[in-house]
Every structure is written in structure tokens, then in C-alpha cells.
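Researcher: I'd like a structural prediction for the single chain below. Treat it as a standalone chain; there are no partners to consider.
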Amino acid sequence: MPVDVPIRGEMIRLGQLLKLADLADGGGDVKLILGGGAVFVNGEPENRRGRQLHAGDVVLVGGTQLRVVAGS
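Model: Treating it as a single chain, here is the predicted structure.
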């Protein structure tokens, strides 16, 4: 079951999402997570922390599934 992560605005970058979801404390953690090859966006492997995500995108990090949702 995915965890909904509400964002402000229309998009968020992957690195920012990982920090917002408390999966990374800072940029160094994001680099390590992405460098490990364990991140998938909408089922495709992803290693760019600047990847733009929009509402409806699903990110899988290890066993954690995040769904980007529009904030209120």
C-alpha cells in the first residue's frame, strides 16, 4: 500500500521527495540511496535526484512505496 506524500505546487524533485518522506536526511543520503540502484519511479529504475515528479507518480525505495499527491 503506497504512502501518500502531499506536495506544494505541481511538481517536486526526487531528492526533495525522499527528504520530505523522511527517507533521507540530506543530499548525501539521497546520493547514497540513488547510487544503490534501489529506486524506481513508475516501475522504471531512476538514479537522478533532479527527476521531476508530479501528482500520481509512484516511487519505490527499497520496500517503501510513495505516491505523490497534490497538497491542499
